[in-house]
């Protein structure tokens, strides 16, 4: 059984898996940056910083959007 993450401060070191387990709707933010790889099993182990680097995305702007749109905001 998966444990549900109750609160998450998304940082450069947060994994894609942890973000999507916390709030599946944040997938839309990644998709908005053309980061479709979030559904690939291997990407689940990547950090936000690693994924942003691979896709040429400004990691600080991505983090801002993720944290602004997560549940509880």
How many domain units?
1
Helix content percent band: 40-55%
Rg result:
11 Å
Number of continuous helical runs: 4
Q: Biggest sheet, open or closed, and with what strands and sense?
A: none
Set down the secondary structure blueprint.
Blueprint: H1 16-22, H2 27-32, H3 48-55, H4 59-69
Task: Describe what this molecule looks like in 3D.
The protein has 73 residues and is mostly helical. It has one domain (16-69). Helix content is 44%, strand content 0%. It is built from 4 helices and no strands. The protein has helices at 16-22, 27-32, 48-55, 59-69. It is globular, with a radius of gyration of 11 Å. The relative contact order is 0.22.
Concise account of the structure shown:
With 73 residues, this protein is mainly α.
Features:
single chain; 73 residues; mainly alpha; 4 helices; globular
């Amino acid at each position: 059984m998966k444990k549900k993450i109750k609160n998450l401060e998304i940082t450069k070191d947060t994994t894609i898996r942890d973000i999507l387990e916390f709030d599946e709707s944040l997938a839309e933010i990644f998709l908005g940056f053309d980061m479709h790889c979030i559904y690939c099993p291997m990407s689940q182990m990547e950090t936000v910083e690693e994924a942003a680097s691979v896709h040429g995305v400004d990691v600080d702007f991505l983090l801002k959007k993720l944290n602004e749109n997560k549940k509880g905001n």
